[in-house]
């Protein structure tokens, strides 16, 4: 989906507030997070059925939104389904997709989702069944737009062969520390480094070719949810360069890390997961920073890569 389409959805196109870490909050604290995001122009909220036990993140959000004075129509709500984490399985059956959307709508206290993504591939998925579910959801007005998360090009092609609606989002992990989406292109065919491994079937180029907007998840995390690399002594060189650029642009280091993702011409969205309104304001300021080519490469190198 091109940026103007996202604007048509009524959302600030660049920064998304992720709600994975919302289950621990009280309804009042969640309302503060939503209000702060909204006041910063961040009106796009990302959920999933598996965020918290029994969809606790969606439940908290549904309780909190009425406390903010913001109406449902002023925001964009996205959820993901297909990952039945607590039961240890993935499920893209028609029955589960339809039941998940109904449950999300109930918890979020709304009658439509702006976007529904399939969370992670169900190894047993039948694309025709998914197509039937999407048709039903579109026809009933329960879902406006559709997409996927953590999917490779051929899986998207297979789905898209049967699904009539365009798949407009692919949510993928991408950050200065977890930059596998772009590494392989640089180290192509080089057997001396792990960076040359093709791990995702060239999904970034595929998304660009097909106007699929990449939503970068965990943009500030090291590893897989191991804490943020910002100010982490394990990343001295990265933090040195982040600090220099933060000073130059008058923003925080997390804003520079966000700006690094946004500088990529794929026009990604960045999903920030902080539940601290100050951190959100700090990081979201990255949307206003335009890094030079040299600065972009200096951050990439400072994250531990080298030029082949
Ligand atoms: N599709 C998928 O498979 C998938 C997987 C994971 C996540 N997601 C989505 O991506 C969203 C973001 O993921 P994430 O929470 O891992 O991303 P993140 O924004 O990289 O990390 C947020 C975490 O970093 C902490 N943090 C520490 N210092 C910070 C600072 N200065 N600025 C900002 N954050 C700071 C936050 O704590 P504080 O709250 O204390 O600031 C929070 O615990 C999720 O909410 C979810 O919507 C999708």
Summarize the structure.
With about 300 residues, the protein is an alpha/beta fold. It has helices at about 5-10, 25-40, 55-70, 95-110, 125-140, 155-160, 180-185, 205-210, 235-250, 255-260, 275-285, 295-300; strands at about 15-20, 45, 75-80, 85, 90, 115-120, 145-150, 165-175, 215, 270.
Structural class assignment: alpha/beta
- Tell me the name of the CATH class of one domain: Alpha Beta
- Indicate the CATH topology of one domain: TIM Barrel
Q: What average pLDDT do the residues reach?
A: 95
Mind explaining what this structure looks like?
With 308 residues, this protein is α/β, with parallel strands linked by helices. It has a domain of 171 residues: TIM Barrel (Alpha-Beta Barrel), CATH 3.20.20. Helix content is 41%, strand content 15%. It has twelve helices and ten strands. The strands form two sheets. Strands 1-2-3-6-7-8-9-10 form an eight-stranded parallel β-barrel, surrounded by five helices. Strands 4-5 form a two-stranded antiparallel ribbon. Strand 7, helix 6 and strand 8 form a beta-alpha-beta unit. Helix 5 crosses helix 6 and helix 9 packs antiparallel against helix 12. The longest helix has 15 residues. It is globular and about 50 Å long. It starts with a helix and ends in a 6-residue tail after the last helix. Bound molecules: NADP nicotinamide-adenine-dinucleotide phosphate (NAP). NADP nicotinamide-adenine-dinucleotide phosphate binds next to strand 10 and helix 11.
Features:
308 residues, alpha/beta, TIM Barrel, 8-stranded parallel beta barrel, two-stranded antiparallel ribbon, 10 strands, 41% helix, globular, binds NADP nicotinamide-adenine-dinucleotide phosphate
